[in-house]
Write a structure and sequence with these properties.
Layout (H helix, E strand, L loop, with lengths): L2 H9 L3 E7 L5 H8 L3 E8 L2 H10 L8 E5 L10 E7 L1 H10 L6 E6 L3 H11 E11 L2 E10 L8 H6 L1 H5 L3 H20 L3 H16 L5
Parallel strand pairs: 1-2, 1-4, 2-3, 4-5
Antiparallel strand pairs: 5-7, 6-7
The structure holds S-adenosylmethionine.
The site of S-adenosylmethionine (SAM) has 16 residues, from strand 2, strand 4 and helix 4.
């Protein structure tokens, strides 16, 4: 298990039923069952080859608590909680939009387009936790959200960086901001792209409100 996968397991709340959507190896759902954090786990993957990996990795003593479904997204599977990790943010949004039964809790880790994911969640979920972690030199957004009737109002900075990162910045988030600032400043030396300078301005605002780069 990597730091990223350990963090996903830690963030998944105790629940009756969990769906591991895009499970591939299935490590997250398997670890959840080992830790008794869910009564049952449905492993879902659009690829039969990936789903077979999860099936092979699943220890025999857990077989009465698991289901394996080869399909695109959640479909009409009804669970308390879904973890959707390691895929693009637009793919995650598409899965949420097509879910017949929106799960009460979501644990998401979009590989890109996290801003779009936050905007989508704000419509009918309350973001409870939204942090960046660094694992093996790569940065990952980890988002936990609960189904909610009221839309959530996010500022531009909250959409861009996540509420929890801004309220209580970790060393990993500060490292991300420093890395982004250096990268964008370097790009601006070679071109005068307003998109890049706009993004640098957001990064510098985040640096300022999180107490500067210590
Ligand atoms: C990179 S793996 C991530 C595996 C694991 N969730 C993780 O975070 O390490 C992405 C998996 O998502 C699956 N996938 C992509 N789009 C999907 C969809 N719409 N529905 C179900 N599975 C999907 C892929 O087949 C692949 O196995």
């Amino acid at each position: 298990m990597s730091k990223r996968l350990d963090k996903l397991v830690e963030l998944i709340p105790e629940c009756n039923s969990l769906a591991d959507v895009g499970c591939d190896h299935g490590y997250v759902g398997i670890e959840i069952l080992r830790q008794n954090k869910a009564d049952d786990v449905t492993f879902i993957d659009v690829s039969q080859l990936s789903l077979d990996k999860a099936r092979r990795n699943c220890p025999e003593e857990l077989t009465d608590k698991v289901g394996f479904v080869c399909q695109d997204g959640l479909g009409n599977i009804n669970v308390d909680c879904a973890v959707i990790a390691g895929m693009g943010g637009l793919e995650i949004i598409d899965i949420l939009d097509r879910a017949v039964f929106p799960p009460h809790m979501l644990v998401l880790q979009p590989n890109r387009n996290a801003v779009d994911v936050r905007r989508r969640l704000a419509r009918d979920y309350r973001i409870q936790y939204d942090r960046m972690i660094c694992d093996g030199g790569k940065f990952y957004n980890m988002i936990v959200a609960e189904l909610c009737n009221e839309p959530m109002q996010l500022t531009e900075l909250q959409e861009e960086f996540g509420i929890t990162n801004l309220l209580a910045p970790t060393e990993d988030f500060r490292l991300y901001l420093r890395t982004e600032q250096t990268k964008l400043t370097q790009i601006l030396k070679g071109c005068n792209d307003p998109k890049v300078s706009g993004r640098l301005s957001l990064v510098e605002q985040a640096i300022a409100i999180t107490g500067g780069l210590q």
